[in-house]
Amino acid sequence: MPRGFLSKAACLALAASVGACASNRFEGPRERPRPQAALEPATPALPSGRVTSEPLAPPPVVATGRSSVVGSWNATDAAGSCKVSLSSTPSLDLYKASAAGCGNKDLAKVSAWDFRDGEVYLYQPGGTVAARLRQAGGSLDGALSKSGAPLSLAR
């Protein structure tokens, strides 16, 4: 057999097989019947109501806040009295504070404070909570964290 005849026959056979495959390939995907559950919505439709818009009410007035506790305080605890100053100067995510003349070592180390959830938190360096206080009239009353001893701050 001549060499040209074999290569032509091979080309024709290859073309025929590719053509047969191509005809099935380009017909597109076959549709499969879907189960009935897949055609139904997952949740029932809710009736629609009338949409209205109104301005929001003003936020509730808070009896106390951060600005109301800024300033100098006379602190009184079991060890005696001293001065605690709560500044409005930010210090990372807290505010600067200082204590002077405090006999209680934990209170003497106060260096920062914060007001959250209606309470004043006094912090020592490193983030240890020294005391938690709540406003009571014109003063702040609470306790030292370590000992649980009462602490009062008055103007």
CATH topology of one domain: Lipocalin
Looking at the overall shape, the CATH architecture of one domain is Beta Barrel
Count the E strands.
Answer: 8
Helix fraction by DSSP (H/I, runs of at least 4): 10-25%
Cα(first) to Cα(last) distance is 117 Å
Instruction: Estimate the global geometry from the Cα principal axes.
Output: elongated
- The SSE string, one letter per element, is HHHEEEHEEEEE
Q: Structural class of the secondary elements?
A: alpha+beta
CATH level 1 class label of one domain? Mainly Beta
Structural key phrases:
about 25% helix; 4 helices; about 160 residues; about 35% strand; 8-stranded antiparallel barrel; Lipocalin; alpha+beta; 8 strands
Structure in words:
The structure is a single chain. With 155 residues, this protein is of the alpha+beta class. 23% of the residues lie in helices and 35% in strands. The protein has a domain at 66-154: Lipocalin, CATH 2.40.128. The protein has helices at 3-25, 36-39, 66-69, 105-108, and strands at residues 71-77, 80-91, 94-100, 112-116, 119-123, 129-136, 139-144, 150-154. It has an 8-stranded antiparallel barrel with strand order 1-2-3-4-5-6-7-8. The model is unreliable at 59-63 (pLDDT under 50).
